[in-house]
C-alpha cells in the first residue's frame, strides 16, 4: 500500500555528527537499524558529513547555491538533480559555492540488504507514471506542487513523498517532475 509523507510534517533533526539538520521523510528499520532511509538535508556552509559505515548513499542537490562534496579527498561538484553515489564510511564534507542554504535529497541503504537507485523523471499531464517492483522500496518525490491520482489521491507540494514496498502508479494533473528513489533487495 502506498503512503503519502508530507515534507512539512517531518521536523528537522540534527545530523548524527551535529553539523547540520535533516528531515527524515521515511525509513525502513529492523533490529539491526536502518535498512532504507530517505531524507532531505539543509546545508548552510562548509560542513562535514556524518559517517555511516556499511551504508551505500546517493545524494542529489535539490536547490540552493551549488554544492561541492569532497569524498575521501576528491572534489565532486554537484549538478542539480544529478545523483552521486558514495560509501557511507567515506570521509565526506560539503561546501557551497555561494551564499544561502542548499537542500539535498539522500537515499541510504544498508549494504548487502538493498541496492539504492535514484533518477529524475518527467510526466505529462494526464499520463500515468508506473514504477517499481514487488518487494522493492519505491518512492516518488514531488519537485513542484502537483495533484496526483492513482496510488494516492492528493495535492502534493515540493518535497512530499509517495512511498511503497511495491509498484507505484500515479497520474499527475499537470506536467510534473519527480525524483524516483528505489531500493531493491
From TrEMBL:
Signal peptide residue numbers: none
Highest rank taxon of the organism: Bacteria
InterPro entries reported for this sequence: RmlC-like_jellyroll, RmlC_Cupin_sf, Uncharacterised_HutD/Ves
Entry protein name: HutD protein
Amino acid at each position: 500500500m502506498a503512503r503519502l509523507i508530507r515534507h512539512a510534517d517531518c521536523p528537522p533533526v540534527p545530523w548524527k555528527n551535529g553539523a547540520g539538520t535533516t528531515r527524515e521523510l521515511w525509513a525502513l528499520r529492523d533490529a539491526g537499524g536502518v535498512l532504507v532511509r530517505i531524507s532531505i538535508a539543509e546545508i548552510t556552509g562548509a560542513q562535514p558529513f556524518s559517517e555511516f559505515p556499511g551504508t551505500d548513499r546517493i545524494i542529489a542537490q535539490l536547490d540552493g547555491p551549488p554544492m561541492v562534496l569532497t569524498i575521501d579527498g576528491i572534489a565532486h561538484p554537484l549538478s542539480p538533480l544529478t545523483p552521486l553515489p558514495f560509501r557511507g564510511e567515506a570521509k565526506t564534507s560539503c561546501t557551497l559555492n555561494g551564499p544561502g542554504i542548499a537542500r539535498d535529497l539522500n537515499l541510504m541503504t544498508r549494504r548487502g540488504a538493498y541496492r539504492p537507485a535514484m533518477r529524475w523523471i518527467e510526466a505529462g499531464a494526464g499520463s500515468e507514471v508506473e514504477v517499481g517492483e514487488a518487494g522493492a522500496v519505491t518512492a516518488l518525490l514531488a519537485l513542484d506542487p502537483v495533484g496526483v491520482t492513482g496510488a494516492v489521491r492528493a495535492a502534493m507540494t515540493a518535497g512530499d513523498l509517495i512511498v511503497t514496498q511495491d509498484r507505484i502508479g500515479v497520474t499527475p494533473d499537470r506536467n510534473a517532475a519527480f525524483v524516483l528513489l528505489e531500493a531493491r533487495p
